[in-house]
Design brief:
Shape: globular
Bound molecules: nicotinamide-adenine-dinucleotide, zinc ion
Distance between the termini: 31 Å
Helix content: 25-40%
Radius of gyration: 20 Å
Number of strands: 17
Number of helices: 15
Strand content: 15-25%
Largest sheet: 7 strands, mixed
Length: 396
Amino acid sequence: MATNRGIAYIKPGIVEVQNIAFPELALGDRKCHHGVILKIVSTNICGSDQHMVRGRTTAPEGLILGHEITGLVLEKGRDVEYLEVGDLVSVPFNIACGRCRNCKEQQTGICLNVNDARPGSAYGYVDMGGWIGGQAEYVMVPYADFNLLKFPNKDQAMEKIRDLTLLSDILPTGYHGAVTAGVKPGMVVYVAGAGPVGLACAASCHLLGAAVVIVGDMIPERLAQARSFGCETVDLRKDATLGEQIEQIVGIPEVDCTVDCVGFEAKGHGHGSDTEQPATVLNAAMEVTRAGGGIGIPGLYVTGDPGGIDDNAKVGNLSIRIGLGWAKSHHFHTGQCPVMTYNRDLMQAILYDKIKIADAVNVQVISLDEGPNGYKDFDHGAAKKYVIDPHGMIPA
Ligand SMILES: NC(=O)c1ccc[n+]([C@@H]2O[C@H](COP(=O)([O-])OP(=O)(O)OC[C@H]3O[C@@H](n4cnc5c(N)ncnc54)[C@H](O)[C@@H]3O)[C@@H](O)[C@H]2O)c1
Ligand SMILES: [Zn+2]
Ligand SMILES: [Zn+2]
């Protein structure tokens, strides 16, 4: 019998590596002819996983985590036509059928056929359809021809695997945040949050030609990481308002676009910077974004948060000053990133050295057994993106 190991969510603050079932090409008691089984080459820890591990969602005990997967095709179902055993592929974190109305419109983050409870799904995530996660040695991927992005040259891809592993989520997500905020050449952009998504967004803003990218956070190491590739930074622990800090950099207290790479666990600014204020980033974005500007919101907001600061926050009801955004004709874009819209083009940008994304987010490769420690360090604000290498295949 083939074996498998994966990282399970146990309870708030605790994850552990467990022996788990080897994946099957099956959907319940039905054969999954359109699926493949992957031997996982790399699988990343995400800020989205941390929301679950901090106990801020209704994730069940025993959930196998992991939605940022890259792997080799080990076995394929009868109906998989365009992939071969041995192909090296990137897995978009959104699971999509390729057949529904939303998939046909490239809205693969809200596929209608992969989650009984609501549109949209992901591997190893609460409320996302119960799919088994890929912080593991092996995983099953359905609708493989539609979902998977094959790397054209395996050897070349393994050399750049630290960068390419980021195509499953955070690079497309950061890029999507920038695109939906309307970032174009010459623009001044404020990126809230210097976690991996914020840093990936900042690097994407550079790729899109932004003139000035200002990254805000309250963790000095993460701000230093943003400066390491040419961003300006604001330290939100300071007493000055965000607008005042922006004014010191660009001469006016205003930006062209803002991207929220923080989400519902946002902390306040200034004196409030050690307490949670879930609407802070959205309200600050409306304050500093110019009239007519855009606000991209890849940061996650939830419909159920047992740790919310009050009864409203517990159901995702936040105190947002929408009147201000309306008065300034802001446009907003929320939701999961439809990874497939961007991953092929961003792969080319990596392969042709147009973006150094592994350096920007400071990739750190660890083993599967080091995964639980990776979760702890990341939660403590390490300026790193942890990439798990379950089979020791990533070259040093
Ligand atoms: N939409 C999508 O498809 C998608 C995909 C991946 C991740 N996400 C979400 O993106 C968000 C960021 O992910 P990450 O991996 O970078 O997480 P992270 O937790 O590492 O980073 C969040 C950062 O925000 C900082 N922060 C807190 N309050 C702030 C404030 N008021 N202003 C500025 N910074 C503040 C924190 O100090 C932290 O460094 C998460 O909510 C994650 O769930 C969404
Ligand atoms: Zn992720
Ligand atoms: Zn679909």
